[in-house]
Amino acid sequence: MCPHQRLPPSAESIKRLTIRYRWLYEQRAKRSRKKADTRKTQSSYYERDPWVKEYTLRRANGICQLCNLPAPFNKKNGDPYLETHHVIWLAEGGDDSIENTVSLCPNCHRKMHVVNSKADRNYLKTEH
After folding, report:
1. For 66-77, how does the pLDDT look when each residue is reduced to its tens digit (9 = 90+)?
2. Percentage of the chain with pLDDT > 70?
3. How many domains, in total, are found in the chain?
4. Which domain holds residue 120?
């Protein structure tokens, strides 16, 4: 074997590294400051139509439009807890309209913002 070529790490060496890094992260976290700093920020806010939101939530009838499961819990007033999501984000030029909004459970809503799967977007565009 050439000197610049390496064998893949063994399972045992990966385990040792994982334990070592976990220990390092723990030590660093223990030394962190206890009070969070504050900073001033400026942001833009899209004023959404409350009627679009209300219609979208009622149209879903308590069912997430991505996973097709019932809302995970109810609000204090007894309504199913779902979140309104713009299939084409407002920041990307999407409309604040009933055609561009869906109701999602909190997990699916987070998934849409973290993963932003093209397959999921296409499904939501065609299924609601």
Report:
1. 999 999 999 999
2. 93
3. 1
4. 50-127
